[in-house]
Amino acid sequence: MTEQSYPIPKLTITGIEISKYIIIHGEFCSPSEKTAAQELQFYIERSCGVQLPVTADSNVESPHEILVGTTNRRYDLDVSYACLGDDGFYLQVKESKLYIVGSPTRGTLYGVYTLLEDYLGWRWFAPVVEQTILSGDAALPGNLDVKFVPIVEYRDTYWYSSLNENWAVKLKVNSIIKNQACSRSIREEWGGGLGYGGPSFVHTFNVFMPISEYFAEHPEYYSLREGKRNGEHLYTQLCLTNPDVLRIMTDKVLNCLQEEPQAGIVSVSQDDSFLSDSYCQCDDCERIHQEEGSPMGSLLRFVNAIADAVKVKHPKVIIDTLAYQHTFTPPKITRPRDNVAIRICTFSPVISRKHEEQPHIKESLEIWSKICNRIYIWDYTTNFSDYIVTFPNFHTLLPNMRLFVNNHAKGIFEQGNYQSISGEFGELRTYLLAQLLWKPDQTETDFERHMNEFLQGYYGAGWQFIRQYIDDVQEIVLKSEPGARGTPTEILPPALFDAEQAKAWWDQAEALAGDEHTLQRIRRSRLQLIHWELFNNGHTDDMNANAYYKMAKDFGITHLNEGVAVPEPRSC
């Protein structure tokens, strides 16, 4: 039972106390529908102190039932299931029965979590921080009739805390990640997810056609640059007009789908590169680039050909590719096939500017939305050169999400610090992004409510002092427009940032923590201020740095940035 400082609330359905109800699932229900029934039982007991029986629909019928998923009572419910997809659901009360029904894949489970959120006040702030904010009785009215189908079909907050399967499902993150650095599995009993086939979900050229395997005998398979094909170069791309390359890649994609028939997406995408001109410039490739006005021309023709072959045997599979670096500009002629997803990468060099204020991003989205029926987004929401530095981009999250969905984005991937628990506000940012992915049409008031609820639940009674810090540094960023990859003092210049006031706010938050777990969460997030104090001149002495790295290690922080681990503290 939840520890509460107020009387245990009552829950009624059409005026009938919840204790009179039983939870019904189908005798042959899906694994996630069984989980949905069990989760509903668990959280109702934690909220109300009443453990409801859970049973199959083949057993005795009761006048007071909560029907979870597909049951033999469905004839009582006048709804259409065709438009729900895998994630949509209905919540309805008819007479004295509550129906929570949706897809047996994930929809019913999402319906249960939405009911718990909206009517019993449950909040899942982080994998180890959940609570109900309900402070009184709750009642489900007899006219309850809610239908919800998410706008975004593919939702991923690629932050460390959301790699936790159980937490991700509660926040309706539905992406399965396969990556050597980190991964997220979502088992069938938790609804499964949208997973990529093959060995990687992005940058797959060298994965499917490794230089080590092909270059020695066939250098012509790789990009020609300044008259040379260099098999030792880290960022060598493929020659996309070579027919053998198309044949090999097509076979590799089809083979991976044969081995992984459950896969819904396969990435056929260029390798990552800090060199914007790493694409092939052979005569055949360059002819296409000139025709199309962009190196995306050769890539999209290549991807379309693979998509055509895939559609014959796997009509529901999506082939995903990147609009990134040299392929960011849409082509003039070629259009993506209907089973191709264009994943637009929106890297923004300025924290304070929203994507709608950056013409190259806004215009690219608008063009792609007119020629592509499946736009995916790869968005960047952290400082990749310094994970712990204060990164005040909260004011951009809602308008950016609106821009994406207004341009018909169907999948959104929000990349952040996926390597380590956060020493900044990573858990807050993850929570807010998940809320936005589920309901991107929410209002500013909704967004503010989500932020304040998180701060109070995660940081305790002194949360408003942390909110003051957030608002203060956000205002500084809006005035100074620093670079996203800047040092701490470029982001928070000493002339504008009152470090003593900031320390006082964090001190007050710590003083009101209330318990050791909350205190540790506050102190871990306070590392961003210690970071600023330590490095505000661009350098520091070894002794202080050593103490700082030890502190980070003690909090479980493993990475300073995407390529550098926290150093092992040296003994004195």
TrEMBL record:
Ranges where the Alpha glucuronidase N-terminal domain occurs: 31-115
InterPro entries registered for this protein in UniProt: DUF4838, Glyco_hydro_67_aGlcAse_N, Hex-like_dom2
Record key words, sorted: Hydrolase
Protein name per the record: DUF4838 domain-containing protein
Originating organism: Paenibacillus mendelii
